[in-house]
Design brief:
Helices cover about 35% and strands about 25% of the residues. The protein is an alpha/beta fold. The chain has a six-stranded mixed sheet with strand order 6-7-8-3-9-10, sandwiched between helices. The chain has a four-stranded antiparallel sheet with strand order 2-1-4-5, covered by helices on one side. A hairpin with a 2-residue loop joins strand 1 and strand 2. Helix 3 crosses helix 5, helix 4 crosses helix 5 and helix 6 packs parallel to helix 7. The protein is globular.
Length: about 260
Amino acid sequence: MDCNNKIQVKEEMGVILEVKNLTKKFGGLTAVNDFSFEIKRGDFIGLIGPNGAGKTTVFNLISGFEKPSSGSIRFDGTNITGLRPFKIVNKGIARTFQLVRSFKFLSLLDNVSVSCQSRRGKEASKGVGIDAYASSILAAVGLVDKARIPPVVLPHGDLRKLQIGKALGTNPELLLLDEPFSGLSHEEQQNLTELILRLHEDGLTIFMTGHVLRELMNLVPRVIAMHQGKFIMDGTPQEVANNKIVLEAYLGKGSEEFA
């Protein structure tokens, strides 16, 4: 992200992330089972599934916090399977977490500035400096007026925005959002939805999980559904909402959940 709050992306719209036959086993438990999908540059995709479906494990594997038992992950044509998280960040993938993580007693500006110290962040801040670059990110996520206060005093909705700001500080091409609406009020969900939509409109490729299905299904144009670590289907929200296997076999809920 530059100081005009626009995402720096390449013009070509080919495949940016290719996941093939991804499997992760924890002892006798298979958390992700032969999972495959592709994301094109500029996509905006949701990953849904009940608790224990394997969504966060997929994100952990892509971002390097877990190493796969088998399968491959390619980002922008490069094999990143099993790379450490900081190397994957330097390739152009950033993520948020279900549990909010921050340096509680540093200012918001300092929190984002830490992320800007990544290789890609430093490249993006050349000519303006880390502080100015970090300030532009805080402006983009709607927190610049709180730049000098610590996260410990923020409401939960602002903490979610800060998480996204810290991820943006690494100047990513692909942003993984893990349960960004978790714990938010309806108003906070609406505010965060507007932010995520702006980021996508500015050119950022976004892949996100969510338990707040109404919010997620109304937000993304494409959904990947999984259950017990396995791929179920990939389609529009309407196709997923009308799929009997998704509703009965894996969600176990009626279609009103998507209304």
